[in-house]
Amino acid sequence: MSWKNTKRWEKIVERTDWQKRSKDIASYIQPNSVVLEFGCYDQSLKTYLPEGCRYIGSDLYARGEDTLVCDLDAEELADFPVADVAVFAGVLEYVKNVGKVLDRLTTEQIVCTYALRPPFPYHTKRNEFERLFTERGYKLETFTNGTSRTSYNSPEWHLWHWRKDDTS
To answer: Maximum distance among all alpha carbons in the chain?
Structure first.
């Protein structure tokens, strides 16, 4: 199967490991935040968000009437909605130009998971991945090694929490 075969994401299949990942991600989000989740799939993150959060789901396919349908590999990216936090859970490994996506964000925080090993098509080394964020004014708040998380189904998965660096 080709990595560009996006049809495989069209149908929702229950993934209990992704539910756990969503719960972990939500723990980094403050109450009353506007949260923009890319690759929202089954929108499980919405279930775990703190009180008062407003959720905006984005995916390759409509997951409801309010889904922002967006291909992050598109030649031209539309403006993203204004949000406090952007979430990428298991998404950036499939994006050709992560820097281009980050350049479109106006968020103060980013929470993402990322696999540092193959077989993902666009994986990169940790220092290269982190440089994409620091070059855009984000400071690493938290890095969680996948091997220390019981909720991930693979030790290659890691969680990053980034915040705009007010000192830059």
So the answer is: 45
